[in-house]
Specification:
mainly alpha
Length: 294
């Protein structure tokens, strides 16, 4: 067990290095090939996004990671759980574990949008007035903390092994950075990728300032879950996507201490512009990729 722990620890450090490298690569690519015009400079947003991200990472390191990974190690040591009981080939076990983790994350993400109390915290992620790779992990530390029981349940129900858990975390982090990035991919390539994974244009719609558009495209890695649950929306050209939450578009709303306090202060009308007018749009067929245009 000690050898396994050391091996997983080394693997974790290696994955962290690769995640950092992917972050830097996407940062460069979205500077050279931007998909959407920025409303505010990166210099204005970066300190705030990094500060909120740092608080979330500390919370995750102290709670989520030890709880979920600790349970995974316990199941590994006791050969307990569904994946241990079924005589599955190794790669089938890996595939089942990753599919399970990604599917359950879909429902967890959706729950954070549909439950008002959870949305108060998740809204911190969405009120960013622009969307790029620095938005990827901009989650309120409170959301990270209350996700701990979910992560334990997620691992516990299937009894996912430490290796599978860590591998999915790596895939999850890279996918999150990729689909939050402001990288303009060739349209043909994006349409092809989107048949399998979540892409920047698809997730850009999820960060739209219109409620029905924000409440769609919940998938993290595989776009399959939105297709199966009929929450896929591809009918909005990126040039028409306004990033952010209408009730929180003023620059003051994205100051660090304002974001930290956001979940516990009186909430504004989310889906109305500062003028009071409701944010609406005429839409076409929601899963029509012809609208996934430049």
């Amino acid at each position: 067990m000690i050898k396994l722990y050391l091996h997983i620890s080394n693997l974790s450090h290696s994955f962290a290095t690769w995640v950092a490298a992917v972050f830097v690569l996407l940062l460069i690519l979205e500077t050279l090939l931007p998909l959407r015009r920025r409303k505010r400079s990166r210099r204005q947003r970066l300190p705030v996004n990094l500060a909120v991200t740092a608080l979330g990472l500390v919370a995750g390191t102290l709670t989520v990671r030890p709880a979920a990974l600790g349970l995974a190690f316990w199941t590994q040591g006791h050969s307990f759980g569904l994946l241990h009981l079924l005589p599955l080939p190794f790669w089938v076990e890996v595939a089942v574990g990753i599919l399970w983790l990604d599917l359950t994350f879909y429902y967890w993400h959706r729950l954070n949008h549909l439950r008002p109390l959870l949305w108060r915290f998740h809204n911190v992620h969405h009120v960013d007035p622009d969307l790029d790779v620095t938005t990827s992990f901009r989650f309120h530390f409170g959301e990270v903390l209350y996700s701990t029981p979910f992560r334990v349940l997620q691992v516990g129900l299937l009894w996912v092994s430490p290796g599978i858990y860590l591998l999915y975390e790596f895939i999850f982090n890279c996918a999150t950075m990729f689909h939050h990035s402001n990288v303009r991919l060739p349209l043909t390539l994006e349409r092809l990728l989107n048949k399998v994974i979540v892409t920047p244009r698809m997730h850009g719609i999820h960060h739209s300032a219109l409620g029905p558009e924000t409440n769609s495209n919940y998938s993290v890695v595989l776009s399959l879950w939105d297709r199966l649950n009929r929450s896929l929306r591809l009918n909005v050209p990126q040039a028409e996507v306004v990033i952010g939450v209408p009730g929180y578009l003023l620059p003051a709303e994205n100051r660090f201490f304002r974001l930290v306090a956001l979940p516990v202060v009186r909430q504004r009308s989310y889906w109305r512009w500062p003028s009071g007018k409701a944010a609406t749009r005429k839409i076409g067929k929601v899963n029509d990729t012809r609208f996934m245009v430049e």
